[in-house]
Amino acid sequence: MTFSEKYVTYEGGCHCGAIRFCVMVKEHLAVDCNCTICRKKGFIHLIVPPEQFTLLKGADSLSTYTFNTQVAKHHFCRICGIHPFYQPRSHPNFIDVNVRCLDDDVLSNFEIRAFDGANWEENIHKLQK
């Protein structure tokens, strides 16, 4: 399932449950980036506008890591360390949800495309909508 006429709502969160969110998805397209941080975190990217994302609980349990350009805000649970979503450098006004942090095993609902983030500057145009 890649595209739908209507939104599907998924819930998700961190490992310990301190952070919970819901996301509305119309386009079941996700990105697997090979940059150093995404590889190490196992992040599968689902980039959505902020109006399709709701933080249900856990704002007080979030910590943020930034590096390099300081544009991306890598949010993670300060209790269990899981990175359920963040503000990406590629789309700083959007939310990037880790598909692996959605409840149940819904990864197969998504078409996953590879992105060469190890060579980010040369490839970013392929990600931007």
Describe the structure.
- The chain has 129 residues and is mainly beta.
- The protein has a single domain (3-116), classed as Metal Binding Protein, Guanine Nucleotide Exchange Factor, Chain A.
- The protein contains two helices and ten strands, in the order βββαβββββββα.
- It has helices at residues 36-41, 120-123; strands spanning 3-13, 20-27, 29-33, 44-48, 53-57, 62-65, 73-77, 85-87, 95-98, 111-115.
- Strands 6-7-8-9-4-3-10 form a seven-stranded mixed β-sheet, with no helix packed on it. Strands 1-2-5 form a three-stranded antiparallel β-sheet, with no helix packed on it.
- The protein is globular.
- The two termini are 20 Å apart.
- The model has no long low-confidence stretch (mean pLDDT 92).
DSSP E strands, number: 10
Strand order of the largest sheet: 6-7-8-9-4-3-10
Tally of individual domains: 1
* Number of helical stretches of at least 4 residues: 2
Secondary structure category: mainly beta
Beta-strand level of the residues, as a percent range? 35-45%
Tell me the helix content: under 10%
| CATH C-level name | Mainly Beta
**Stretches with pLDDT under 50, minimum 5 residues:** none
Shape: globular
| Overall radius of gyration | 14 Å
**Major sheet description:** 7 strands, mixed
Provide the CATH architecture: Beta Complex
Distance between the termini: 20 Å
Q: What pattern of helices and strands is seen along the backbone?
A: EEEHEEEEEEEH
The CATH topology: Metal Binding Protein, Guanine Nucleotide Exchange Factor, Chain A
